[in-house]
Amino acid sequence: MPAIKVFSGEDVQVPEGSSHEFSCTFQEASGAAIQLAAITSVRGWLDDDVSGNTINSRANVELLGANGGSVVDGGGGVGLFTWVLGAADAPIASQEPVESEIHRITLKVTYTRTGGGTGVLTHKVLYSVVALERI
Questions:
Q1: Most buried residue, 7, 49, 53, 89, by CB count within 10 Å?
Q2: Average pLDDT over residues 6-15
Q3: What is the pLDDT of residue 3?
Q4: One-character DSSP codes across the chain
Q5: Is 6 part of any domain?
Q6: Global pTM exceeds 0.85
């Protein structure tokens, strides 16, 4: 069995029907890393980037300790987010023969700002799911 593809940015190719894992840290507009203790919610969406269709009912799901999502101390108290996605999260949705599809992860993070108050940021990542016959 191949290893799970772990990625944190774009330019990644995930084989169709395979498990994969997205990981990142979040930053405030000032560039300061968001601390683990400050993160109060992470909501996620997984979509086909071209059609906008939701993949595997992954629309506005809570990911803070649920639905394959977790946030742990990534060092120095910084929150390291990980979303483990299963085989059903990597389909080729197109009815036409394609070499690959672009999928989009959108995360909405709610946190307590460094100076106080509530902050909300949106983090998006695009990646490619490659049709099995192309691998």
A1: 89
A2: 80
A3: 54
A4: -PPPEEESSSS-EEETT--EEEEEE-B-TTSPBPBGGGEEEEEEEEEETTT-PBSTT-SSEE-SSSTTEEEEE-STTBEEEEEEE-GGGS----SS--SEEEEEEEEEEEEE-TTSSEEEEEEEEEEEEE-GGG-
A5: no
A6: yes
pLDDT reading at 103 higher than 80: yes
Q: Which domain holds residue 21?
A: 13-134
The confidence score (pLDDT) of residue 1 equals 37
* 104: in domain: yes
Number of domains within the chain: 1
CATH number, position 127: 2.60.40
Please check whether residue 51 lies inside any domain of the structure: yes
Average pLDDT, the chain: 90
